[in-house]
Amino acid sequence: MHIVSINRGNVAPLFITDSRSTQSVISGIRKNAVDNTVQIGRLGIEGDEQADLTVHGGIDKAVYLYPHEHYAFWEKTLLSLHKQTPQAIELAPGAMGENLTTRGILENDLWVGDRLNIGNVLLEVTEPRAPCYKFAARMGYRHAVKHMLQSGFTGVYLKVLEQGSVQAGAVITLQPGAREVKISEINGRRLKGRQRELFP
User: Fold this and answer.
1) Domains of the chain, earliest start first
2) pLDDT at residue 170 above 80?
3) Average pLDDT of the residues of the chain
4) In this predicted structure, what is the pLDDT of residue 176?
5) Which of 49, 65, 35 is nearest to 125 (CA)?
6) Verdict on whether the full-model pTM lies above 0.85
7) Least crowded by CB within 10 Å, which of 102, 103, 166, 173?
8) What does the DSSP assignment read for the chain?
């Protein structure tokens, strides 16, 4: 298990388009890879910004982790929607709005309270992402929220227990917690709870 990319971004306008109009909201969902070593503090990656702290940010959602393994699913989905050549759909790390793009650790592997050691940094799994309309706008199609929930490819939020520095390529060590609530179980409950909304 290791970090593929560390990503951060600034809040900026994000345009939401429906059948009638286009409106602008402020979002920090656009993240770009950082080449150098980055500090992680109690509130997340140094230099990273969040616009809506009810969704991302704060102590319990300081860092957002997303498995790189899921990128193939999104590239295939976008390809089928846009009917473009495979070379035209290639998502860069950070495209899901995540701070840490990782390889070797998936939602099915994680439980609330599990801890991730990355060098001198210690992170704790708190919950899976609950995607909103901003994710759909970022991906460019309205069913993106449904596809994230349906697939279970949500990524997870992390609390920072021990601050320090990280860099791409760093090894991640998993320390099991109490193992009472599985991330995939939370995803399943959320999907069931939104069936009427997502599948009219």
Assistant:
1) 2-191 (2.40.33.20)
2) yes
3) 90
4) 97
5) 65
6) yes
7) 173
8) -EEEEEEE---EEEEEE-SS-EEEEEE----EE--S-EEEETTEETT---S-TTTS-SSTTSEEEEEGGGHHHHHHHHHHHHT--GGG--PPTTTTS-SEEEES--GGG-BTT-EEEETTEEEEEEEE----HHHHHHHTSTTHHHHHHHHT---EEEEEEE-EEE-TT-B-EEE-----SBHHHHHHHHHHHTHHHH--
Looking at residue 4, its amino acid is V
How many angstroms separate the CA atoms of 199 and 182, rounded?
25
Tell me the pLDDT tens digit for each residue of 102-140: 999 999 999 999 999 999 999 999 999 999 888 998 898
Nearest to 46 by CA among 124, 163, 159: 163
**pLDDT at residue 183 is higher than 80:** yes
